[in-house]
Amino acid sequence: MSECLFCQIVAKEVDSDIVYEDEKVIAFKDINPQAPVHYLIIPKKHIETILDLAEEDQELIGHIHQVANQLAFEAGIADDGFRIVNNCKDAGGQTVFHLHFHLLGGRNLQWPPG
Ligand code: 5GP
Ligand code: ZN
Question: Does ligand 1 have an atom closer than 6 angstroms to the CB of 92?
């Protein structure tokens, strides 16, 4: 079993509430939601942080954002607006070191985030 929590979610060794899946990407509900809609969109491939992207990952990152748009429409937050967040390393607030993008919406989000 992988030591990475999100790799375990990808492998279905840890349960999650999956809202989207294809061969490259999986999206699931955050266990501790910070907004009425709070999904995590992740590559199936293990990439630790956004700093670890390779040249070949460009299409994957674009695809993740297309999936985020699709999920925003499906969740009914596209009209009002939403936020996509990536926390990078400790000062950025990253707690799980498998690249993920938060999709947050369903309320008026504050700025700056703190
Ligand atoms: P980060 O702080 O790394 O940007 O975000 C990690 C996110 O993963 C947090 O929002 C946290 O609530 C979520 N999370 C941590 N463990 C689990 C889990 O076991 N299942 C799910 N669905 N989300 C998790
Ligand atoms: Zn992983």
Answer: no
Tens digit of pLDDT for each residue in 69-84? 999 999 999 999 999 9
Taking the CA of residue 92 as reference, the ligand 1 atom at the shortest distance is 4
Q: Report how many domains make up the chain.
A: 1
Instruction: Tell me whether residue 50 is in a domain.
Output: yes
Distance 47 CA to ligand 2 centre (A): 7
- Length in residues, the chain: 114
Whole-structure pTM value: 0.98
| 3-class secondary structure, 29 | strand
Which residues constitute the domain of residue 91?
A: 5-105
114 domain residue, yes or no: no
CB-proximal residues (5 Å) to ion ligand 2: 4, 6-7, 46, 98
Q: Is residue 33 part of a domain?
A: yes
Q: Are 68 and 74 in contact (CB under 8 A)?
A: no
